[in-house]
């Protein structure tokens, strides 16, 4: 399940969009590491997926290019997904 979030990014001409923090359920998380990124195409829409860490948890955040929205797709605490 995707939940909308606010995300702060840096736009780098060589590296592209780099998320640096996000707010989820009123709490701000500082991104310490981007472990993986990939793009998914569905019809005319592209979504940019980022696997990021705050040093304690792993998050999957997604940018929906067509709707210009950031969402959190999953939170992993160890091996378990917190968001179904």
Structure description:
The chain is an all-beta fold and 84 residues long. The chain has one domain. It is built from no helices and eight strands. The chain has strands spanning 3-12, 16-24, 27-30, 33-42, 45-53, 58-64, 69-77, 80-81. Strands 1, 2, 3, 4, 5, 6, 7 and 8 form an eight-stranded antiparallel beta sheet that branches. It is globular. The termini are close together. The model has no long low-confidence stretch (mean pLDDT 92).
Structural class: mainly beta
Low-pLDDT segments: none
What pattern of helices and strands is seen along the backbone? EEEEEEEE
* Overall outline: globular
Give the rounded overall mean pLDDT: 92
Helical content stands at under 10%
Helices, by number, come to 0
Oligomeric state of shown chains: single chain
Tally of distinct domains: 1
Radius of gyration: 12 Å
């Amino acid at each position: 399940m995707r939940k909308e979030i606010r995300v702060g990014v840096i736009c780098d001409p060589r590296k592209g969009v780099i998320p640096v923090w996000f707010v989820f359920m009123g709490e701000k998380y500082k991104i310490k590491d981007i472990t993986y990124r990939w793009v998914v195409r569905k019809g005319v829409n592209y979504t940019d997926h980022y696997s990021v860490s705050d040093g304690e948890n792993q998050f999957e955040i997604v940018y929906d290019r067509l709707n210009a929205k950031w969402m959190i797709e999953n939170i992993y605490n160890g091996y378990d997904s917190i968001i179904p």
